[in-house]
Amino acid sequence: MKARARTLLFAAGAVGTAALFTAGALDLPDFGGPVHPYGDRAVREALGKGTSNTVSSVNFDQRALDTIGEELILLASALGAVVLLRVVRKEEEDAGASHRHGPAEVSDALRIIGYLLLPLTLMAGVYLIAHGAQSPGGGFQGGVVLGTAIHLLYLAGDYPALQRLRPIPVFESAEALAAGAFVALGLAAAGQVPALNAAVGAEVGCALVLLIGKFFEQALLVREPPEPP
C-alpha cells in the first residue's frame, strides 16, 4: 500500500473515531450532577446478582465480553513473543550455557533478598487472586504479581533455578487452558465470579511468565554462530 493510500485510510478512521467520540461526549451527564445512568444500573445489577462488590460485578457479569477481549489481547501478545523470538536460521540456542556457568556472581545481600522475597511475593499474588471476588478486581493484578515474582530468582543471580521453576512448555499449555476455561465459563453462563477471577489470574500469570521468559532466552541463550574463517 502506498503512503498516500495509508494516509487516506488513517484519515478516514480518525474522522470516524472523532465523530463517535464527540457524539458520545456531548451526551454525557453534567460533571458532578445527580444523574448517573451507568452507575445506577451497575449498582442495581450487582445487588441483584448478590456480587460482593460492584467492580467485580461489572468486570465479570456486566461486561464479561470486554474482559474476554483483554484476555485474548494478552494471549495474542504472548503468542507473538513466542513466534517473534524463536530461534531463526542464522541463530542457534546454547541450551547448556546457564547450566555450565551456574548461578551468577551477585552480592550476598541481593541473593538473600531475592530468595526471601520469592515466597512472600508468590503468597501475595495468590492472596490477590483468591480474594479478588471480595475486593475490586484481583485476578489480573494477582496474575501480574505471580508472573513477575518467579523471576526474582533471576535478580538473585540463579538463572538455572529459574529455568527449572518455570518450564516454558508447561506455561504455554496452562495459559491456553486458562483462557479456554474463562471463555467456556462465560458462554455457559455458569461461571461464578470466584471461578472467573481464578481463570483470569492463571491466564495473566502464565502469559507474563511466557513474555518475560522468551525475552530472557533471547538475551541469554540465543546467539549467532561464529563466522567461518
TrEMBL record:
The keyword Signal applies. Pfam families: MnhB (PF04039). One of its GO terms (cellular component) is plasma membrane. Residues 110-200 form the Na+/H+ antiporter MnhB subunit-related protein domain. It is found in: Cell membrane. Keywords: Cell membrane, Membrane, Signal, Transmembrane, Transmembrane helix. The keyword Transmembrane applies. Its main location: membrane. Residues 1-25 form the signal peptide. Belongs to the CPA3 antiporters (TC 2.A.63) subunit B family. This is Sodium:proton antiporter. It comes from Actinomadura rubrisoli. The lineage of its organism: Bacteria, Bacillati, Actinomycetota, Actinomycetes, Streptosporangiales.
